[in-house]
From TrEMBL:
<protein>
    <recommendedName>
        <fullName>Pyridoxine/pyridoxamine 5'-phosphate oxidase</fullName>
        <ecNumber>1.4.3.5</ecNumber>
    </recommendedName>
</protein>
<comment type="pathway">
    <text>Cofactor metabolism; pyridoxal 5'-phosphate salvage; pyridoxal 5'-phosphate from pyridoxamine 5'-phosphate: step 1/1.</text>
</comment>
<feature type="binding site">
    <location>
        <position position="126"/>
    </location>
    <ligand>
        <name>substrate</name>
    </ligand>
</feature>
<dbReference type="Pfam" id="PF01243">
    <property type="entry name" value="PNPOx_N"/>
</dbReference>
<dbReference type="InterPro" id="IPR012349">
    <property type="entry name" value="Split_barrel_FMN-bd"/>
</dbReference>
<dbReference type="InterPro" id="IPR011576">
    <property type="entry name" value="Pyridox_Oxase_N"/>
</dbReference>
<feature type="binding site">
    <location>
        <position position="82"/>
    </location>
    <ligand>
        <name>FMN</name>
    </ligand>
</feature>
<feature type="binding site">
    <location>
        <position position="104"/>
    </location>
    <ligand>
        <name>FMN</name>
    </ligand>
</feature>
<comment type="pathway">
    <text>Cofactor metabolism; pyridoxal 5'-phosphate salvage; pyridoxal 5'-phosphate from pyridoxine 5'-phosphate: step 1/1.</text>
</comment>
<feature type="domain" description="Pyridoxamine 5'-phosphate oxidase N-terminal">
    <location>
        <begin position="34"/>
        <end position="158"/>
    </location>
</feature>
<feature type="domain" description="Pyridoxine 5'-phosphate oxidase dimerisation C-terminal">
    <location>
        <begin position="171"/>
        <end position="212"/>
    </location>
</feature>
<feature type="binding site">
    <location>
        <begin position="60"/>
        <end position="65"/>
    </location>
    <ligand>
        <name>FMN</name>
    </ligand>
</feature>
<dbReference type="Pfam" id="PF10590">
    <property type="entry name" value="PNP_phzG_C"/>
</dbReference>
<feature type="binding site">
    <location>
        <begin position="75"/>
        <end position="76"/>
    </location>
    <ligand>
        <name>FMN</name>
    </ligand>
</feature>
<feature type="binding site">
    <location>
        <begin position="139"/>
        <end position="140"/>
    </location>
    <ligand>
        <name>FMN</name>
    </ligand>
</feature>
<feature type="binding site">
    <location>
        <position position="122"/>
    </location>
    <ligand>
        <name>substrate</name>
    </ligand>
</feature>
<feature type="binding site">
    <location>
        <begin position="190"/>
        <end position="192"/>
    </location>
    <ligand>
        <name>substrate</name>
    </ligand>
</feature>
Amino acid sequence: MEIDQWRREYVQGGLQRSDLAESPVEQFEAWLGEVVKAGISDPSAMCLSTADASGQPSQRIVLLKGFDARGFVFYTNLKSQKAWDIAANPKVSLLFPWHFLDRQVIVRGVAEPLSDTEADEYFSSRPRDSQIAAWASHQSDAIVSRQVLEEGFETFRQKFDGQDVPRPEFWGGYRVEPHAVEFWQGRASRLHDRFVYRSMEGGDWQIERLSP
């Protein structure tokens, strides 16, 4: 496998300053709309990067569940590795790898816990089996077999039979408040277009073009 020879040109388009919206949220919404229109599965999938107290980074794919001027929202088990990392170091990064359009979006910011009200509202909208799975899984803990997981699921399925499934206290969400959002568009000869929005005092955004 000659991996070092795998390459292609990025020729799906370019990105100019005049193409950009005034805020990164507006620009993100426009690009996300194009991703959805392209019919690609999991358009909201993003790589969440965290680092623990020692500085050891970790990455995993999670799903974006909302965004607005306040930031980007995701949900998780609050006793997971990502939650422990965020408790020690709330600075995180999000990456949307939209390779099929030769695009990436990178968000750098701070993760803040969502309110119980917000978490309750979203949890109640989840499929019932997903709600039960939240109770059955001690995310990131070692288990001896899949059977343990499936037995736990069945236990909680029976426990909540005939009633609404409540949100576990150890399950919630975070909002990543961005201080920088980069939009990357691949170009031929590796002369990519990169623009970053940087937050300024008063809620304004400064836009800079970056060298590829």
